[in-house]
Design goal:
homodimer, 32% helix, alpha/beta, 6-stranded mixed beta sheet, elongated, 520 residues, 5-stranded mixed beta sheet
Chain lengths: 520, 520
């Protein structure tokens, strides 16, 4: 993770000078405070919500007119959030949230020092309604469904907020800003906006740029007047999480074209530079998330994330997360494994098991070939961990889809892949993947390895950047307006390209000069 | 009442062109509407409250994207209020409210035509807590007191709104703006702001310029997003009702100095021109409101509003409101009566009854002189209507206070009274008063009669003007900023002036050359 950029904040903590009222200066309390803040900020106007104005006189008197003020700026000018006792040790916080459909990650940051106070994650409780987005959209159309989905999420987030506040001994009202990045549907469900038309022609969201949201409107238990920055979307299929990703990558500031890939159930790809951004998304299949293979699972302790097959193939050199006994394999491990199987000649160019190379490891269960990756005695489960031919077939489709989406997009904008010298990979997937293995499989293009840059959770990183910097916040709207979404036209051309990519590394070997098969 | 001025409105009804969504243009519903409105208004930005954004897609689809939009402008730019079916006959309303401590008056205006749809009034239900402002301020400090006072008023206003809507067959949501003028305390009680410090040193309101209020924040049952324009105050003793009065008088647009007087329990006086405004208020005594004299009462049917005493003093020529049998006398009638008594020689310069001139009309009851104004056989009550010496004494104090306040204020700003060629008199009092009688008494200065201009309910008139015109709305803040409030210093000078004014018309007869005693 990079340190958040400095620069001008849009949420600001200032120490206005305010004289207590007297018979000689009977300016009202609210106007008195506004006057002080205007002077400090050199601003022409300070907006104070009416609900806040009601409570200010009491607070001001309580602190004897000696206060720090939390303010924020938006296109309408400066707005007051709250006032606090003017003490050196007053700490004011913001919360950045990556609103994933399965996992929600929060980052608590102190706003004056930019100090990262904590980072936590929890399962999105909407999973109990449905693991996939479509189920949730359908559920939202039921009576009370949308409210239920929103409440589940907000209540869980509130629990996290309470927990964070207790742990760090902070008042919840000192959390004065929230920044949230999520895909378009997740954002709608968080805001209580009807997602009905997101998955129905003509596929339009309720809103592209959610605006003017204070935490109290969502029932969030931080400062009630805290501004909630919700990342905008380009459309139903290109959400705020990707805009956050682009922001975190910095690709919109580079003259040379870069590519950003975020792999989940969908593969989302962006190509562009400081002048333009073109994006598309397509079903790459859940294989890459570890969601399909029999032994596949999400990254976690004991999950195989790296595999090497030496000249003596038995046993495979296996690395698990936290070096725990193996329990399964994640997407990046699977790519490593299949790439190594290919390099070892144990599968052919079509991804089919080569019997004579596999030897006794290859077993037939229910008429299906399974390769034993970890024998029962070495696995945590006591059962053999095996990779079936259909598992590989699924990965082959995923990797072919990924590569086809990449080439289709770059062809559309006429950017030769070799001109791309930054290839950002977002997400957990990006953190664990070995680019060399992905190149070997022909999933990613044959670029110099140093071009590949894992970025981790770019949705959270982007959310945190936009929370802390006015410039970063402005950029997300600039990114939104600059991004063109390419509707993937799954026509004959696409299908031809897809078929050609279903080989390892590719039908056209010239595209992957670096890939050399070890075994013969 | 003058017709409201034309000019640019700040609440506007426009007909944006909006294309329904399609696969080729998948802009979100909210952003689609904003785009259309921006184009129509030629505005850079349209603000949409988040709570409104949630409901818009359904409304837009319901009207097939063929809508009129109600928008309003404030210093932060343009804001959407709501959308309506785009039909020629769509009528959109605003409500102007004069928030009096005893009577609330509402005026319903159609915003496109400026047509006055209705004007109604009701007793301020807070009277049940206390007829005077101080009692209400003390009550507000009790547990739940402030809420009770606010609720009483808001619920009563809602009942009026429901009644108006039914009577004129309009949807309440088509009332899209509210403009409210009242004194500082009434405004605080309406907004639920703590009035505690209004009557305590250093006498400061919670807020001078209430801002950013939508009707839903107050529980008003008009369009929930309707902006509520609450007139600002200069301080605890100079409220929005007077700012509305200045606006209605137009004195802030004239180069020559004018005076505005609003008489209630307090006499409030403003002098000024297009460059400056100076105001003060002082207890003129309730006599002028008809609140003290035995036979005194508020204006109403059967209430004596004019009296003439001919050379043959018996009987007095009496005019009552609606020409009903007399039941009592109102403030303006009292001024007429006492002025005539003086001109007829029935009272002397000190306001004392002249026995020989009064004859058998003058009776002694409980050692106090009473003059029979209406004998029992002519009165509605069957009892004689009489005016006691203490009644006259009270009026003498009131008229002396009024004149002293006027001269103190004009002396402070160095404006000779004879240079004032517009003397506006606001309120019911102003509508009924005979300036000649007030001059005779020495309550108002001896200006040419044409200088005196009754204005009626200027608080309501100003509220309506500011509801309809952006320029008028801007002016009220300009007036607020330009007005200096003069704290009346009741020192020896003031008391001397007051004593000198306790004669009819004045100790210095040269100040009232037009006043000639008829009788000798």
């Amino acid at each position: 993770m990079e340190k958040p950029p400095g620069g001008k904040p849009w949420i600001n903590i200032i120490s206005p000078k305010i004289a207590p009222p007297s018979l000689k200066d009977n300016t009202a309390d609210v106007d008195r405070l506004i006057k002080g803040i205007k002077k400090t900020l050199q601003a022409e106007r300070i907006n104070v919500e009416f609900s806040l104005a009601k409570t200010l006189p009491q607070t001001l008197k309580h602190y004897n007119y000696n206060v720090d003020a939390a303010v924020f700026e938006n296109p309408n000018g400066w707005h007051l959030i709250d006032v606090f006792s003017a003490q050196k040790e007053t700490r004011i916080y913001g919360l950045a949230v990556d609103l994933g459909s399965s996992t929600v990650v929060t980052r608590l940051v102190e706003l004056k020092s930019h100090e990262l106070t904590d980072e936590t994650s929890f399962h999105n409780p909407q999973v109990q309604i449905g693991t996939d987005i479509l189920t949730r959209i359908h559920f939202a159309a039921q009576d009370g469904g949308l409210e239920k989905l929103q409440t589940l999420l907000v209540e869980r987030l509130n629990r996290e907020i309470h927990r964070l506040a207790e742990k760090h001994h902070i008042e919840r009202r000192s959390i004065v800003g929230l920044s949230v990045a999520g895909n378009t549907t997740m954002t709608h469900l968080f805001l209580g906006l009807d997602p009905y038309w997101i998955c129905r022609e003509p596929y339009i969201p309720v809103v592209n740029k959610p605006d003017r949201i204070r935490s109290k409107a969502l029932g969030l238990e931080i400062n009630p007047e805290a501004p909630v920055l919700v990342f905008p979307n380009v459309g139903s299929y290109f959400g705020g999480d990707l805009i956050a990703g682009i922001l975190a990558s910095g690709m919109m500031d580079r003259q040379a074209p870069s590519i950003l890939v975020d792999v989940g159930t969908n593969a989302e790809v962006v190509v562009g530079n400081s002048d333009w951004l073109m994006a598309c998304a397509g079903a790459a299949g859940p294989a890459l998330e570890g969601g399909v293979a029999h032994m596949g699972m999400m990254a976690g302790p004991g999950v195989i994330d790296h595999v090497r097959i030496g000249p003596q193939p038995d046993p495979f050199t296996i690395k698990t997360i936290d070096n725990k006994p193996p329990v399964g394999i994640c997407g990046s491990g699977l790519i490593d494994l299949v790439a190594e199987l290919f390099l070892a000649g144990m599968i052919d160019e079509r991804g089919k098991y080569v019997r004579k190379k596999c030897g006794p490891r290859l077993r037939v269960i229910d008429d299906i070939h399974h390769l034993v990756i970890v024998p029962p005695e070495d696995s945590k489960t006591g059962h053999a961990l095996t990779l079936s031919q259909p598992d590989i077939d699924a990965l082959m489709r995923s990797k072919a889809a990924m590569y086809t989406i990449l080439t289709t997009l770059t062809n559309t904008v006429n950017v030769p892949l070799h001109e791309v010298n930054r290839f950002f990979i977002a997400g957990t997937f990006g953190s664990f993947i070995d680019p060399q293995s992905a190149i070997t499989l022909g999933m990613l293009p044959d670029l110099p390895l140093k071009a590949y840059i894992p970025l981790g959770n770019t949705s959270l990183e982007g959310a945190a950047m936009a929370l802390l910097s006015a410039e970063a916040k402005e950029k997300i709207f600039h990114i939104r307006d600059q991004t063109t979404y390419l509707e993937l036209n799954v026509n004959q051309d696409f299908m031809n390209a897809f078929s050609a990519a279903k080989f390892i590394p590719h039908t056209d070997r010239a595209l992957f000069p670096s890939v050399k098969v070890r075994a013969s």
